[in-house]
Design brief:
five-stranded parallel sheet, 5 helices, binds 1,3,4-trihydroxy-5-OXO-cyclohexanecarboxylic acid
Amino acid sequence: MNILIINGPNLNLLGKREPSIYGKSSFKEYLPRLKSEFPDTRIDYFQSNHEGEIIDKIHEADGNYHGIVLNAAAYTHTSIAIADAVAAVSVPVVEVHISNIYKREAFRHLSYIAANCIGSISGFGLKSYRLAVMSLVNW
Ligand code: DQA
């Protein structure tokens, strides 16, 4: 089984960016720990600050991965194009957020992507990714 994690804009700054909200660990520090919890699953990682690159990656993943874990970051709340990309592919996608988007500003309460995903996980810190991988492994 293989899973692709896609992180959107500003998530390259995890560890430095608003640590009271997103924690003190970078994703690069967290990824080996996550991989070690799923020794039978190949987990690939892609991060981009650019909407079109995220869309291209979702298209490329179709047929090449068993599932996608997608944290589209701020694009969650703005991007019909990413929502359409998720709807266009047959690979299952789990939406992930580190913070609990429903506890935050009203503009974060809307996800254009959620309705096209098999499910959404929000608010468990970096553990949200573990829960998402777990849900795809058992899908
Ligand atoms: C986020 C929540 C978004 O509202 C925000 O724009 C992010 C990160 C999260 O993981 O909690 O960049 O997706």
